[in-house]
Design a protein that fits this description.
The protein is mainly alpha-helical. Helix content is 75%, strand content 0%. It has eight helices and no strands. Helix 6 runs antiparallel to helix 7. The longest helix is centred in the middle third of the chain and has 29 residues. The protein starts with a helix and ends in a 9-residue tail after the last helix. Bound molecules: fe (ii) ion (2 copies). The site of one fe (ii) ion has 5 residues, from helix 7. One fe (ii) ion binds next to helix 7.
């Protein structure tokens, strides 16, 4: 199976495809997209660091997430490079409605392992949606350099998505994880449906 094909199958897990109008309006506001994207990479690195600090006793988790932190920070650097070479401004973070809404779905309480599952699935979902959006950018925008850039990042984030799901299945009952994953997917589709379509946000 080609990479494209296998990723398409993995990406089918998302229950609602992005509105096809998004990529056109995002392209018109590419400066905002790049700034928002830089913060997405920062948050991806930070969330892996938080998990390492919360679960230092889980060797496999620590050893799997440590190189991902470096990779996400590398992505941050690369987005910054794209911003700088276009003379675009970075600036303060913007309110991330998507992540705020997803955070609201994290089940509070429960065992440590249950909490870990929630956070791994939350990360997996953000990776999956980012991967879908990067794919749209890589396919449809005009800027040749950014097309290539987003294609490369799409592959990397697809790998992270798989890693988070696999980790979740390793540290908790896989049946529970699969069932909870479906709930996360349904929830994500429901918030995306309600959210205003805007071209200045990656999600
Ligand atoms: Fe990334
Ligand atoms: Fe990632």
């Amino acid at each position: 199976m080609s990479w494209e094909e296998s990723t398409r199958q993995k990406m089918l897990h998302l229950k609602l495809p992005t509105d096809p109008r998004w990529v056109g309006i995002a392209e018109m506001q590419i400066e905002d997209i790049l700034v928002d994207h830089a913060y997405c990479e920062q948050k991806a690195a930070s969330s892996c660091i938080s998990l390492i600090l919360r679960y230092p006793d889980l060797d496999e988790l620590v050893d799997t997430l440590t190189p991902i932190v470096a990779e996400e920070w590398g992505h941050f650097e690369r987005v910054m490079e794209q911003l700088r070479k276009r003379n675009m401004k970075f600036g303060f973070p913007r309110k991330d409605e998507y992540v705020i809404k997803l955070n609201g779905f994290v089940k509070k309480g429960g065992s440590r392992k249950q909490q870990l599952t929630e956070h791994l699935l939350l990360n997996a979902l953000i990776e999956a949606r980012s991967c879908e959006r990067f794919k749209l950018l890589s396919k449809h925008i005009q800027d040749e350099e950014l097309k290539k850039f987003y294609y490369e990042l799409m592959i990397s984030e697809a790998g992270h998505y798989v890693t988070f799901i696999e980790l979740a299945r390793k540290f908790h009952d896989p049946e529970y994880v699969n069932q909870r994953w479906q709930e996360w997917l349904d929830y994500e589709a429901s918030i995306l449906k309600e959210m205003e379509l805007r071209g200045d946000r990656m999600h």
